[in-house]
Amino acid sequence: VLLLIPFSLWWAEARTITWEDLKDVKFSRKFVKEEDMYFLFPAFGEKVKKLNGQALQIKGYMIPVDPEDKIYVLSARPMASCFFCGAAGPETIIQLNLKNRKKFRTDEIWTVRGRFRLNAENLDECNYVLDECEPVLKH
Asked: The whole model's pTM is what?
């Protein structure tokens, strides 16, 4: 039996998570010879591993990585105290792979949803990624 579930229904079932749900991770510092730098590599805990591949939504602060190309991360904290400024860990940001390119202002608070993906190896991406990401609600 083939069940056809409308795409919008899949999103309607997106589970809401908080930043607390993403804390089940430990980081180890490793030297990457090709980059001639040290990087933090994650060891995801079971709680976070269970979220991999799920439709999720989360609320946070928009932080521009490259506003011209409309590349953003969502942060648990505003820009002045986010991971990039050294006041938080890598588990406090999520890379947003937006379905539709849109511009956001720094520190706008949004709830976004998408398919959650863990990344432990690709240095060009964050450890947490939301693919097929869409903004849901501006706060």
From this structure: 0.87
